[in-house]
Write a structure and sequence with these properties.
By secondary structure, the protein is of the alpha/beta class. It has two domains: 4-150 and 317-334, Rossmann fold, CATH 3.40.50; 154-313, Rossmann fold. It contains twelve helices and 13 strands. The chain has helices spanning 18-30, 45-53, 92-100, 152-157, 180-193, 209-212, 227-235, 246-254, 268-276, 285-292, 296-313, 318-334; strands at 4-8, 35-40, 57-60, 82-86, 104-108, 117-123, 137-143, 170-173, 199-202, 219-222, 239-243, 258-261, 281-282. α5 (180-193) crosses α10 (285-292).
Length: 335
Protein backbone atom coordinates (compact mmCIF):
# COMPACT_ATOMS: atom_id res chain seq x y z
CA UNK A 1 0.00 0.00 0.00
CA UNK A 2 1.44 3.42 -0.93
CA UNK A 3 2.46 5.83 1.80
CA UNK A 4 0.21 8.80 2.60
CA UNK A 5 1.37 12.37 2.07
CA UNK A 6 -0.32 15.05 4.18
CA UNK A 7 -0.28 18.39 2.38
CA UNK A 8 -0.48 21.29 4.87
CA UNK A 9 -1.35 24.83 3.76
CA UNK A 10 -3.72 27.66 4.66
CA UNK A 11 -5.19 30.53 2.68
CA UNK A 12 -7.56 33.47 3.00
CA UNK A 13 -8.53 36.65 1.21
CA UNK A 14 -5.97 38.43 3.39
CA UNK A 15 -2.98 36.13 2.84
CA UNK A 16 -3.94 34.80 -0.59
CA UNK A 17 -4.29 31.23 -1.79
CA UNK A 18 -0.98 30.64 -3.56
CA UNK A 19 0.28 28.12 -1.01
CA UNK A 20 -2.90 26.03 -1.30
CA UNK A 21 -2.88 26.05 -5.09
CA UNK A 22 0.81 25.14 -5.18
CA UNK A 23 0.22 22.12 -2.95
CA UNK A 24 -2.83 21.11 -4.97
CA UNK A 25 -0.57 21.06 -8.02
CA UNK A 26 2.07 19.08 -6.14
CA UNK A 27 -0.54 16.59 -4.93
CA UNK A 28 -1.69 16.02 -8.52
CA UNK A 29 1.94 15.41 -9.52
CA UNK A 30 2.43 12.83 -6.75
CA UNK A 31 -0.92 11.05 -6.47
CA UNK A 32 0.10 8.21 -8.81
CA UNK A 33 2.73 7.17 -6.24
CA UNK A 34 1.16 8.19 -2.90
CA UNK A 35 -2.18 8.55 -1.16
CA UNK A 36 -2.85 12.27 -0.73
CA UNK A 37 -4.63 14.07 2.13
CA UNK A 38 -4.97 17.85 2.30
CA UNK A 39 -4.94 19.47 5.75
CA UNK A 40 -6.07 23.11 6.00
CA UNK A 41 -7.72 25.80 8.14
CA UNK A 42 -9.07 27.59 5.05
CA UNK A 43 -12.68 28.75 5.38
CA UNK A 44 -13.20 30.13 1.87
CA UNK A 45 -16.02 28.40 -0.03
CA UNK A 46 -14.25 28.59 -3.40
CA UNK A 47 -11.09 27.04 -1.95
CA UNK A 48 -13.07 24.37 -0.12
CA UNK A 49 -14.69 23.45 -3.43
CA UNK A 50 -11.29 23.29 -5.15
CA UNK A 51 -9.99 21.04 -2.37
CA UNK A 52 -13.02 18.76 -2.59
CA UNK A 53 -12.77 18.60 -6.38
CA UNK A 54 -9.13 17.58 -6.16
CA UNK A 55 -10.13 14.04 -5.22
CA UNK A 56 -7.85 14.14 -2.17
CA UNK A 57 -9.05 13.45 1.35
CA UNK A 58 -9.78 16.84 2.96
CA UNK A 59 -9.03 17.27 6.67
CA UNK A 60 -10.35 20.59 8.00
CA UNK A 61 -8.66 22.06 11.07
CA UNK A 62 -10.18 24.55 13.49
CA UNK A 63 -8.74 28.02 13.82
CA UNK A 64 -8.13 31.21 11.86
CA UNK A 65 -6.01 30.64 8.72
CA UNK A 66 -4.23 33.96 9.31
CA UNK A 67 -3.16 33.19 12.90
CA UNK A 68 -0.01 31.35 14.12
CA UNK A 69 0.01 27.56 14.15
CA UNK A 70 1.14 24.88 16.58
CA UNK A 71 2.43 21.45 15.60
CA UNK A 72 -0.10 20.03 18.09
CA UNK A 73 -2.66 20.44 15.30
CA UNK A 74 -1.19 17.30 13.70
CA UNK A 75 -1.22 15.13 16.83
CA UNK A 76 -3.80 12.91 15.13
CA UNK A 77 -1.22 11.67 12.60
CA UNK A 78 0.44 8.32 13.13
CA UNK A 79 4.22 8.24 13.01
CA UNK A 80 5.95 8.08 10.62
CA UNK A 81 3.94 10.16 8.18
CA UNK A 82 5.04 12.33 5.26
CA UNK A 83 4.12 15.99 5.78
CA UNK A 84 4.62 18.64 3.10
CA UNK A 85 4.07 22.17 4.45
CA UNK A 86 3.82 25.37 2.42
CA UNK A 87 3.41 28.71 4.18
CA UNK A 88 5.25 31.35 6.19
CA UNK A 89 3.45 30.45 9.42
CA UNK A 90 5.33 27.14 9.72
CA UNK A 91 8.30 28.37 11.72
CA UNK A 92 11.37 26.56 13.02
CA UNK A 93 9.66 25.57 16.29
CA UNK A 94 6.84 23.97 14.27
CA UNK A 95 9.38 22.05 12.19
CA UNK A 96 11.29 20.87 15.25
CA UNK A 97 8.09 19.57 16.84
CA UNK A 98 7.14 17.67 13.67
CA UNK A 99 10.63 16.20 13.39
CA UNK A 100 10.60 15.18 17.07
CA UNK A 101 7.57 13.01 16.30
CA UNK A 102 9.62 11.11 13.69
CA UNK A 103 7.67 12.34 10.68
CA UNK A 104 9.30 12.95 7.31
CA UNK A 105 9.02 16.71 6.78
CA UNK A 106 9.17 18.45 3.40
CA UNK A 107 9.08 22.26 3.32
CA UNK A 108 8.25 24.41 0.30
CA UNK A 109 10.48 27.50 0.23
CA UNK A 110 10.29 30.73 -1.70
CA UNK A 111 11.62 33.47 0.57
CA UNK A 112 13.39 31.81 3.58
CA UNK A 113 11.34 33.43 6.31
CA UNK A 114 12.62 30.85 8.82
CA UNK A 115 15.61 28.60 9.41
CA UNK A 116 14.70 25.22 7.96
CA UNK A 117 14.97 22.04 10.03
CA UNK A 118 13.56 19.56 7.51
CA UNK A 119 14.26 16.36 5.64
CA UNK A 120 13.69 17.94 2.23
CA UNK A 121 13.34 21.56 1.10
CA UNK A 122 11.91 22.35 -2.33
CA UNK A 123 12.36 25.72 -4.03
CA UNK A 124 11.41 25.53 -7.70
CA UNK A 125 12.36 29.08 -8.66
CA UNK A 126 14.79 29.51 -11.51
CA UNK A 127 18.08 30.43 -9.87
CA UNK A 128 17.23 28.75 -6.56
CA UNK A 129 20.31 26.58 -7.10
CA UNK A 130 22.36 29.61 -6.05
CA UNK A 131 20.67 30.06 -2.64
CA UNK A 132 22.92 29.40 0.36
CA UNK A 133 21.22 26.90 2.70
CA UNK A 134 24.37 26.14 4.71
CA UNK A 135 22.93 27.61 7.94
CA UNK A 136 19.88 25.33 7.77
CA UNK A 137 19.50 21.70 8.88
CA UNK A 138 18.33 20.00 5.69
CA UNK A 139 19.04 16.50 4.41
CA UNK A 140 17.97 16.90 0.77
CA UNK A 141 17.49 19.93 -1.48
CA UNK A 142 15.32 20.09 -4.61
CA UNK A 143 16.16 23.39 -6.26
CA UNK A 144 15.35 25.05 -9.56
CA UNK A 145 12.98 24.49 -12.45
CA UNK A 146 13.91 20.79 -12.69
CA UNK A 147 11.55 20.44 -9.71
CA UNK A 148 8.88 22.89 -10.91
CA UNK A 149 5.58 22.48 -9.03
CA UNK A 150 3.01 23.07 -11.74
CA UNK A 151 -0.41 21.77 -12.66
CA UNK A 152 -0.29 18.67 -14.83
CA UNK A 153 -1.83 20.22 -17.97
CA UNK A 154 1.03 22.74 -18.05
CA UNK A 155 3.63 20.00 -17.66
CA UNK A 156 1.99 18.21 -20.58
CA UNK A 157 1.92 21.45 -22.60
CA UNK A 158 5.70 21.69 -22.20
CA UNK A 159 6.04 18.49 -24.25
CA UNK A 160 3.88 19.69 -27.16
CA UNK A 161 5.26 21.39 -30.26
CA UNK A 162 4.22 25.06 -30.36
CA UNK A 163 3.36 26.98 -33.50
CA UNK A 164 3.33 30.72 -34.00
CA UNK A 165 -0.03 32.50 -34.15
CA UNK A 166 -0.03 35.59 -36.33
CA UNK A 167 -3.19 36.94 -34.69
CA UNK A 168 -2.00 39.67 -32.35
CA UNK A 169 -3.44 39.19 -28.86
CA UNK A 170 -1.99 39.63 -25.36
CA UNK A 171 -2.52 37.50 -22.26
CA UNK A 172 -2.08 39.30 -18.90
CA UNK A 173 -2.12 37.89 -15.36
CA UNK A 174 -0.59 39.16 -12.12
CA UNK A 175 -2.09 36.48 -9.87
CA UNK A 176 -5.33 36.31 -7.95
CA UNK A 177 -4.53 38.89 -5.27
CA UNK A 178 -5.46 42.56 -5.12
CA UNK A 179 -3.82 43.55 -8.43
CA UNK A 180 -6.52 45.69 -10.08
CA UNK A 181 -4.50 48.92 -9.86
CA UNK A 182 -1.44 47.33 -11.45
CA UNK A 183 -3.56 45.70 -14.15
CA UNK A 184 -5.20 49.03 -14.97
CA UNK A 185 -1.83 50.77 -15.25
CA UNK A 186 -0.57 47.99 -17.54
CA UNK A 187 -3.69 48.05 -19.73
CA UNK A 188 -3.49 51.83 -20.08
CA UNK A 189 0.22 51.78 -20.92
CA UNK A 190 -0.36 49.18 -23.65
CA UNK A 191 -3.26 51.15 -25.09
CA UNK A 192 -1.13 54.31 -25.19
CA UNK A 193 1.78 52.53 -26.87
CA UNK A 194 -0.08 50.66 -29.61
CA UNK A 195 -3.30 50.39 -31.57
CA UNK A 196 -6.20 48.67 -29.76
CA UNK A 197 -5.48 44.95 -29.43
CA UNK A 198 -7.43 42.06 -27.92
CA UNK A 199 -6.34 41.76 -24.28
CA UNK A 200 -7.17 38.66 -22.24
CA UNK A 201 -6.98 39.48 -18.51
CA UNK A 202 -6.95 36.72 -15.89
CA UNK A 203 -7.62 38.04 -12.39
CA UNK A 204 -9.22 37.11 -9.09
CA UNK A 205 -12.94 36.48 -8.70
CA UNK A 206 -13.28 39.62 -6.56
CA UNK A 207 -11.75 41.92 -9.17
CA UNK A 208 -13.69 45.05 -10.12
CA UNK A 209 -12.32 44.79 -13.66
CA UNK A 210 -15.00 42.29 -14.71
CA UNK A 211 -17.66 44.97 -14.40
CA UNK A 212 -15.47 47.79 -15.68
CA UNK A 213 -14.67 46.03 -18.97
CA UNK A 214 -17.93 44.11 -19.37
CA UNK A 215 -18.81 45.93 -22.63
CA UNK A 216 -15.29 46.56 -23.93
CA UNK A 217 -14.84 44.93 -27.34
CA UNK A 218 -11.05 44.67 -26.96
CA UNK A 219 -10.73 43.44 -23.38
CA UNK A 220 -11.91 40.09 -22.02
CA UNK A 221 -11.64 39.33 -18.29
CA UNK A 222 -11.62 35.90 -16.65
CA UNK A 223 -11.37 34.33 -13.21
CA UNK A 224 -11.43 30.84 -11.68
CA UNK A 225 -10.28 29.22 -14.92
CA UNK A 226 -9.09 25.64 -15.10
CA UNK A 227 -5.56 24.93 -16.31
CA UNK A 228 -6.99 23.68 -19.60
CA UNK A 229 -8.94 26.92 -20.11
CA UNK A 230 -5.85 29.04 -19.39
CA UNK A 231 -3.83 27.01 -21.90
CA UNK A 232 -6.53 27.39 -24.56
CA UNK A 233 -6.74 31.18 -24.14
CA UNK A 234 -3.01 31.85 -23.74
CA UNK A 235 -2.07 29.59 -26.66
CA UNK A 236 -4.11 31.83 -28.96
CA UNK A 237 -2.11 34.89 -27.87
CA UNK A 238 1.05 36.36 -29.37
CA UNK A 239 2.68 37.08 -26.02
CA UNK A 240 2.07 37.12 -22.27
CA UNK A 241 2.63 39.69 -19.52
CA UNK A 242 2.67 38.20 -16.02
CA UNK A 243 3.99 38.57 -12.52
CA UNK A 244 7.22 36.69 -11.78
CA UNK A 245 5.31 33.91 -10.04
CA UNK A 246 3.93 30.48 -10.86
CA UNK A 247 1.89 31.93 -13.73
CA UNK A 248 5.11 32.95 -15.50
CA UNK A 249 6.37 29.36 -15.27
CA UNK A 250 3.03 28.14 -16.63
CA UNK A 251 3.34 30.51 -19.59
CA UNK A 252 6.88 29.28 -20.21
CA UNK A 253 5.50 25.73 -20.36
CA UNK A 254 3.00 26.84 -23.01
CA UNK A 255 5.81 28.62 -24.84
CA UNK A 256 5.64 32.25 -26.03
CA UNK A 257 7.37 35.64 -25.71
CA UNK A 258 7.01 36.47 -22.02
CA UNK A 259 7.27 39.83 -20.22
CA UNK A 260 7.39 39.81 -16.43
CA UNK A 261 7.12 42.14 -13.44
CA UNK A 262 8.10 41.57 -9.82
CA UNK A 263 4.96 42.51 -7.90
CA UNK A 264 5.91 41.24 -4.39
CA UNK A 265 9.14 40.43 -2.54
CA UNK A 266 8.92 36.64 -2.84
CA UNK A 267 9.06 36.87 -6.65
CA UNK A 268 12.62 38.18 -6.70
CA UNK A 269 14.30 34.82 -7.33
CA UNK A 270 11.97 33.82 -10.18
CA UNK A 271 12.22 37.32 -11.67
CA UNK A 272 16.02 37.27 -11.66
CA UNK A 273 16.25 33.66 -12.85
CA UNK A 274 13.82 34.17 -15.74
CA UNK A 275 15.77 37.19 -16.98
CA UNK A 276 19.22 35.64 -16.51
CA UNK A 277 18.23 32.53 -18.46
CA UNK A 278 16.56 34.63 -21.18
CA UNK A 279 13.18 32.95 -20.70
CA UNK A 280 11.50 36.34 -20.30
CA UNK A 281 12.09 40.06 -20.61
CA UNK A 282 11.31 42.84 -18.12
CA UNK A 283 7.96 44.38 -18.97
CA UNK A 284 7.77 47.80 -20.60
CA UNK A 285 4.89 48.96 -22.77
CA UNK A 286 7.28 50.10 -25.50
CA UNK A 287 9.01 46.71 -25.67
CA UNK A 288 5.66 44.92 -25.89
CA UNK A 289 4.58 47.29 -28.65
CA UNK A 290 7.81 46.58 -30.55
CA UNK A 291 7.17 42.85 -30.32
CA UNK A 292 3.49 43.01 -31.18
CA UNK A 293 4.04 45.28 -34.21
CA UNK A 294 6.90 43.30 -35.77
CA UNK A 295 6.39 41.88 -39.30
CA UNK A 296 5.10 38.26 -39.23
CA UNK A 297 8.42 36.74 -40.34
CA UNK A 298 10.39 38.60 -37.66
CA UNK A 299 7.74 37.88 -35.02
CA UNK A 300 7.84 34.17 -35.88
CA UNK A 301 11.61 34.03 -35.35
CA UNK A 302 11.26 35.93 -32.07
CA UNK A 303 8.52 33.52 -30.95
CA UNK A 304 10.61 30.45 -31.85
CA UNK A 305 13.68 31.68 -29.98
CA UNK A 306 11.67 32.09 -26.77
CA UNK A 307 10.03 28.68 -27.06
CA UNK A 308 13.36 26.95 -27.70
CA UNK A 309 14.88 28.39 -24.50
CA UNK A 310 11.74 27.74 -22.43
CA UNK A 311 11.53 24.09 -23.56
CA UNK A 312 15.09 23.43 -22.38
CA UNK A 313 14.23 24.56 -18.84
CA UNK A 314 10.63 23.35 -18.48
CA UNK A 315 10.66 19.81 -19.87
CA UNK A 316 7.49 18.48 -18.21
CA UNK A 317 9.38 15.87 -16.15
CA UNK A 318 9.49 17.62 -12.75
CA UNK A 319 6.72 15.45 -11.27
CA UNK A 320 8.72 12.28 -11.84
CA UNK A 321 11.79 13.85 -10.24
CA UNK A 322 9.89 14.98 -7.14
CA UNK A 323 8.16 11.61 -6.70
CA UNK A 324 11.46 9.76 -7.03
CA UNK A 325 13.14 12.08 -4.50
CA UNK A 326 10.42 11.69 -1.84
CA UNK A 327 9.96 7.95 -2.41
CA UNK A 328 13.69 7.35 -2.27
CA UNK A 329 14.18 9.30 0.92
CA UNK A 330 11.15 7.69 2.58
CA UNK A 331 12.46 4.22 1.73
CA UNK A 332 15.92 5.15 2.98
CA UNK A 333 14.64 6.53 6.27
CA UNK A 334 11.76 4.22 7.20
CA UNK A 335 12.27 0.84 5.53
Amino acid sequence: MPATIYLRADGSKVSGYGHIYRLLALGAMLHDKFRISFVSRSKDAVIDEALRNSGFELIKLAGDPDQPVSADELNFLESPSIIIADGYQFDTAYMDAIKARKHLLVMIDDIQTHTYHADIVINHALGAENIDFSSHRINKLALGASFAILRKPFLEAAKIKRTFTAKRQIFICFGGGLTDDLLLITIQSIEQASEPLPLHILTGAGSMLHERFRNDEHISTYSNLSAEEIIRIASACTLAITSASTISCEMACIGMPLYILQTVDNQKIIYTGMLEQALALPYTAMEVNRCISAPPEQASLYFSSFVEKQRKVFDGQSGQRLAALIMGYYAEKFT
